[in-house]
Amino acid sequence: MILINLLPHREAARKRRREAFFASLGAAALCGGVIAGGMFLWYAAQISDQQGKNELLKTEITKLEGQIKEISTLQQEIAALRARQQAVEDLQADRNMPVHLLNELVRQLPDGVYISSLKQDNQVVTLVGTAQSNERVSELLRNLSNNSPWLTRPELVEIVAGSVALSPRDQRRVANFNMKVRLLRSSEVQKAAASAASAPGVAPAASASAAAAAPANKT
């Protein structure tokens, strides 16, 4: 016997495939939505955590900026205190500078040189005087440059020929000079003496100058 199926089986199969497609499409959409939601929640949690870290960093940075300002203020105060301390030490050291100046002038003035006036401006001393000749002025410059631990860098500003009347009939030619010299502080003398002592092959004159400077600094 031959059996013939007269039912619309193609349409039923097509309907089943369509339903299966839409079911799979809905399942895929649902899975995609779940995955997207999970990723959104994960990223949201990461962003929230990073924002929390950023806020913590901002708070710590604000604290550090305040501490840096305090440290800067302390450094300025320390610098001001050091400047005051240095000023006090300089004043204490400068008290004996006129004494050292007069002692050195007495020691270094050669015969035939006379100082008529001197003026001290901070550490620069201006000497005005008269010498019997230009050679005497040159000798004074050499003495101040090489033999004195307290005086340094002499500079001849002016030298003018003049005359002195010893009597109505006795006129002698002289050299009127104006020079400047730098007067060292006690700390500078000590540094120079230490450098001269530590240098190899120190000359005897330098050693003698350093020895002369040491007791003078204690006054």
Helix content: 55-70%
> Uncertain segments of ≥5 residues (pLDDT<50)?
202-219
Annotation field: number of helices: 5
Radius of gyration, CA atoms, in whole angstroms:
49 Å
Largest sheet: 4 strands, antiparallel
Structural class assignment: alpha+beta
Large-scale geometry: rod-shaped
Compose a concise summary of this entry:
The protein has five helices and four strands; from the N terminus they run ααββαββαα. With 219 residues, the protein is α+β, with helices and mostly antiparallel strands.
Explain what this protein looks like in three dimensions:
The protein has 219 residues and is α+β, with helices and mostly antiparallel strands. It is 63% helix and 22% strand. The protein is built from 5 helices and 4 strands, in the order H-H-E-E-H-E-E-H-H. The chain has helices at 9-94, 97-108, 134-146, 186-198, 204-218, and strands at residues 113-121, 124-131, 151-167, 170-183. A 4-stranded antiparallel sheet has the order 1-2-4-3. Helix 4 runs antiparallel to helix 5 (204-218). The chain is rod-shaped and about 175 Å long. Mean pLDDT is 81; it is low at 202-219.
List the helices and strands and how they pair.
Layout: H1 9-94, H2 97-108, E1 113-121, E2 124-131, H3 134-146, E3 151-167, E4 170-183, H4 186-198, H5 204-218
Antiparallel strand pairs: 1-2, 2-4, 3-4
Helix pairs in contact: 4-5
